[in-house]
Amino acid sequence: MKKARIGKYLSLFSLLVVAVACSKVPGYVIPPNEMAGILADIHVGEAVIELNRTDYRTDSAKMVMLQSVLAKHNVSKHDLDTSFNWYGHNISYYMDVYDKTIDLLERRVAETGNRIAAENISIAGDSVDVWNYAPFITFNSMSPSSFITFSLNADENWEKGDSYTWRAKFTNNTENSIWGIMADYDDGSMEIFTSELTGDGWRELRFISDSTKTATRVYGYINAKPRGMTSIWADSLMLIRNRLDQESYRQHYRQQRVIPKNLKQTEKESELTDSIK
Prior knowledge:
CATH architecture of the largest domain: Sandwich
Largest sheet: 5 strands, antiparallel
């Protein structure tokens, strides 16, 4: 009986602690859990807009998406702006909301897997997000690596001339981040496209595979460089595959030449490709 009573008191104490912690957020501010749900839905909405740019060309069309999210959560634009302002001045609470948002989105990715992408491939085979890694990554001095990498092996859905647009939304990206996408071809050659990108907001690199060759693997890396003890946040990571577009294919010639693998690679190229493999 005493143990049961002690357990009861501990449970009540835990609830009291949670209530006191939550009470530190003013009543006019959207609570952390609800704020995280709103941000997760906004991130999903922004991803839909980016994948369907032709349908969301105007700001009014984008506002419809935001209004639908606000209506779902029964909050106003004023409520959202006021809450953003408060969280912006209370960074510890903002980071808590940010972590909750990441958890929500990662759970959604884990639950759905690549089901939607697979359905789109079978129906249209175009404008498919083939990214199946974590959608959010943080870089700082405590991170195990300053690299994001991916590697995709060819399957029955690949076609000659496919392009891959790697995109992410950056925060606090004050230094140049180095991006690279590469392809291996069945004739034993490879092709590389690299670029340096900086600044916050959406950043992307587009790689166009050779329309005369069959790619066996596409892989890439981002080397982010946080300054000092600061952090860089990359969210909404996606890798959009599109079919051959004759009008934009001329961009293919911006990429580095095809390098036969039987020739000796430079030390830097070998390190990069080996680290991704």
